[in-house]
Amino acid sequence: MNAMGIVTDLIAGGVGGNIAGAVLKKFDLGPVGNTIAGVVGGVGGGQLLSMLLSGGGAAAATSAASTGGMDISSILGSVAGGGVGGAIVMAIVGLIKTQMSKSST
User: CA 13 from chain center: how many Å?
Assistant: First the structure.
């Protein structure tokens, strides 16, 4: 994956984490926590989705790199994978934080 794809995953993950934090108030980590969890999930989700869509093979990655890399479908895939991955990781971290705070009181 090229640098633009990773940057797209980072941004989409941060946005996805913050949207999930706004929707799931119970698991909200605050703006900074939502963004950090979202960025981590965005990179993971974006990479996973791009591997699944490209078949996961090295030949597909080599072919994409030789043809110029990012087309509209790969950009949309990065945004979707990054946003969903960011939201999922933020929700998981928020759930863990909520459960830990319940057990300590």
Answer: 4
Beta carbons within 10 angstroms of residue 73's beta carbon: 9
For 79, the domain range is: 1-25+32-48+73-105
* pTM for this prediction: 0.77
Asked if 24 and 94 touch (Cβ cutoff 8 Å), the reply is: yes
State the total domains in the chain: 1
Mean pLDDT of the chain: 83
Give the pLDDT band (50/70/90) at residue 97: very high
In a domain, 13, yes or no: yes
Distance CA 17, CA 41 (A): 8
